[in-house]
Amino acid sequence: MNDDSVTPMMAQYLEIKAQNPGALLFYRMGDFYEMFFDDAVAAAEALDIALTKRGKHLGEDIAMCGVPVHSAEGYLLSLIRKGFRVAIAEQLEDPAEARKRGSKAVVRRDVVRLVTPGTLTEDSLLEARRHNFLAAWAEVRDEAALAWADISTGELRVMPCPLARLAPELARLAPREVLASEAKEADLAAIVTDSGAAFTPLARSAFDSTGADARLCALFQVGTLDAFGTFDRAELSAMGALVEYLNLTQRGKLPLLRPPQKESLGGSMQIDAATRRNLEITQSLSGGRDGSLLSVVDRTVTAAGARLLERRLSSPARHLGTIHARLESVRFLLEQSRFRQELRDLLRRVPDMDRALSRLALDRAGPRDIAAIRAGLTQAGALAQRLSTNLPGLLAEAATALTGHDGLIDLLDQALVAEPPLLARDGGFIAPGYDVELDETRTLRDEGRAVIAGMQADFIEKTGIQSLKIKHNNVLGYFIETTSTHAEKMLAPPLSETFIHRQTTANQVRFTTLALSEMETRILNAGNHALEIEKRHYSSLREETLARSAAIAATARALAEIDLAAAFADLAAEEGWTEPVVDDSRAFLVSGGRHPVVERALRRQGGQPFVANDCALTDADTPAIWLLTGPNMAGKSTFLRQNALIALLAQSGSFVPATSARIGLVSQLFSRVGASDDLARGRSTFMVEMVETAAILNQADDRALVILDEIGRGTATYDGLSIAWATLEHLHDVNRCRALFATHYHEMTALSAKLDGVENATVTVKEWEGEVVFLHEVRKGAADRSYGVQVARLAGLPSAVIDRAKVVLEALEKGEREGSSQKALIDDLPLFRATPPVAPPRAEPKASAIEAALKGVHPDELTPIEALKLVYDLKAMLPG
C-alpha cells in the first residue's frame, strides 16, 4: 500500500466505517474479520490479541488486528461485555463475481448487522435462563412510558412510566440496553447507567408517535393496533423507537416480536432498586446468581421456565385472582407427586423454542433450530396426553395450547434427520425418502466416490505403483499422487499417454487423466446439486415453521407455565413449604417462618438447623409495627429479610418457608438494611442510609410492607436516636403501613406505650460462663442490653481491648444512671487522659521444677518403662 494513495479496499473500509462511527467494524476478509486504525488498537487491547500493521495511510502505519470468522462469537461476547458495539460487514458477493468487473475490483461489502447489548440472539452470547431486554423510554407532553422487548424470545411489553418510576422499573427488568431521545440524555444517562444497562441515545425522529403507529402496524401486518389494546402517545412512541432501533441494528430483518402486552403500574408489587439489592432477589450483593433467592428456589427444568420464574420473582402480582390461580396449580401438582415427576421428566427434553423461532425469523438459524421446534412440539404433545381433564384453571388453559401441531410435526419428522447439523451449508439434514430427486443426486454423488476408489485400484494395477493415491483439495480438485521415484515411470511412454502431469512438490508428483477429470465434474455437480436441493427444502421448512410462529410461541409459553408450577410444587415438597393464604386484609401472620437462603447455607455447612420464628402483624385498621431489639449477630436482619421474602414468594405464586402464613396483599415492599456508601456520587454510608429512608417515607402507602434495620447508626448517638424515633413515628402516623423496625436504641422501646400500633419484640440471647449464646428466637418484649462487647470478643478483638471496653462501658452506664457529665466521665477514665500511664514492666515468672525436668526430655526416645518412671517422678514433684 503506497503512502500517497488509498487502495480501493481501504476506501471501501473507510466509507463503511464512516457510516457506523459508534461501533467497532468487523470487516470480512475471507476467513477473518479484520479491524483497522483505532478500531484495531481498541479491539486488540480488549481481546488481548496481537496488534500488527498493514500498509500506510497518509504516511502513517495502519494498525490492524483480526479474529477468525468461525470463532467470532466468543470475541463478540467479550467486546459486548466490555461496553463495545460491533458492526459486522460481510462479503455480499463471490470474489469471482468481483473479478469480472476488473482485476482491481473490490468485493462488495456492507454492514449486515449491528451487535449491541440489547440485540443479541446467539445462544453462545446469551444466558439461557435469563431474559435479554432492550428497553426504550419516551415522554410525550405530560405522558411517559417504558417499552421493552427480548428479541431472542419475541416478548414485547409496554407500561406507563413517569420519570420518577424509571429507576425502580429498570431495577425490576434489568435490561441490557436502554434507548431514549438524545434530548433527554442529560436527565437519563445516570439513571440508566446506575441500573447496569448501556445507554443509547436516538434522534428525536425515532420517537415520533405518529410514525411509531405506522411502524408497529407494518410490523404486525394490521391496519390498526386496537386489537392489541389502547395505547397512549408515549407508549406508541416508546414501542416505535424499539422497532426503529431494531430495524437499524438488524438491517431490515426484524425479529419475530409478539403483539404488545400492556402492563399497569399497579399490576405488580412495587420494589425499588435498593430493596431488590438488599433482599438479593435475583442476584447476591456480590453480583452473582449464587446466594440469591432465585438460586435457592429455582427448580425449573426448561430455559423458558427459568426465565418465567425470574419474571415472577421480580414482579410479584397484586391481583388476588392471579395469585390464587397460581397457588392452585402448585397445590394440584404438589398433591400428585408421581404425576408431577412424569411431567418434569417430559419437560426436561423440551428445547428453547422461543429462541429457535427468533433465530429463524432473523435468518440466523440452521437445521438444528428447526429440529428444536420439532422436539419441543413433540414433547408438548406427549405432555398433553398425560394431562388429565380435571386440571385447575391455569393448567387447563396451558394444556389447550399444547396441541394442534400434528401437521407440522409430521412434516418435520419426514423432512429432517434425527440429528441435523448446525448449519444448512453443511448439508445432510434432509431425511432419505423425502425427495426422490435428492436421493438420486446423493446416490450419484456417493457412487461417484466409490468409482474414484475403483479408479485408484485400476491405476495401481496399470502402473504397478502400490503407493499411488487419488486425493482431493480445493485448488486442484481430484488428482493422482505418487512419489518422485515412481513419477519417472509415469512420465515415460506408454504411461505418459494416459497420465497428464499437473504439479511437482518437494516429495510428490501429481497427475490427472481425462477419465478422472470427467468423473470429478460429475461428482462435484452432484454434490453441489444435492446441497442446493437441501437448502431449498430448508427455506421451505423455515417458512412453514414461521407461518405457525404464533401457535408455537403460545405452546412455548404454556410449557413454561407448567414447568414453573411443577417446579414450585417440587420445591414445596422437598423443603416442606406451606401454601400461604393471600387475601385483601392487612394481616401479616407467619408461623414458623424461615429464611430460604440462610437455611440452605446452614444445611450446606453441616446440617445446622435454622431457628424458625413467628411474626404477627395485626390485621386491624391500625398500623402494625414490630420494634425489634437485640444484639448484633442474634439474627435481627435475617428475621426482617425472611418476612419480606415470604411476602414476595406468596405473591409470586409460590408456597412459602413457614408452618403457616396469612398475607394481606402487599402493594409495596421496602427494605433499608445494611451499610454501604456511594463514593462515586460523594455519598457517605449515612447519606445513602438517609436517601433510602427518605424514599420509603415519601412513597410507602398503607398496604406497604417495610423492613428497616438500624436507622441512624451512621451518625452521632443522639442524632441517630432522634432520626430513628421520628422515622418510626412517621411510619405509624403518616404511612400507616406494616413494618419491622430493628434498632439498637433501647430508648425507643418506650414508644410501644405511646403508639397503639407499635409492639416490642426481641431476639433472645443467653449468657453462660461469661459468654453470650445466640438463641435466634424472636419473642415479645424488649432487650435489656446490646451485648456489643461480647460480640466483639467473638470477632477476635484482643483480650486487652475487650477488658478495657468493659471498664469503659461500666463507667458510662454508671454515669448515665447517676447523671454525670461526659467530661467528668472522661476525666475518670485513664484511657482518655492526655498522657496515658506507662504500665510497669511484667516480671518474668520463675521456671518450676517440673518445667525444668521436662526441658531435657525427648518423648520419642523414651521406652515405655522410662515414660512410666517419668510420670511417677513428676507426680512426686507436685506440691503437697
Automatic annotation (TrEMBL):
Role of this protein: This protein is involved in the repair of mismatches in DNA. It is possible that it carries out the mismatch recognition step. This protein has a weak ATPase activity.
Keywords on record: ATP-binding, DNA damage, DNA repair, DNA-binding, Nucleotide-binding
Alphabetized InterPro entries for the sequence: DNA_mismatch_repair_MutS, DNA_mismatch_repair_MutS-lik_N, DNA_mismatch_repair_MutS/MSH, DNA_mismatch_repair_MutS_C, DNA_mismatch_repair_MutS_clamp, DNA_mismatch_repair_MutS_core, DNA_mismatch_repair_MutS_N, DNA_mismatch_repair_MutS_sf
Name this protein carries in UniProt: DNA mismatch repair protein MutS
Pfam (any one): MutS_II
Taxonomic lineage of the native organism: Bacteria, Pseudomonadati, Pseudomonadota, Alphaproteobacteria, Rhodobacterales
Domain DNA mismatch repair proteins mutS family: start-end pairs: 704-720
GO annotation (BP), single: mismatch repair
SMART domains: MUTSac, MUTSd
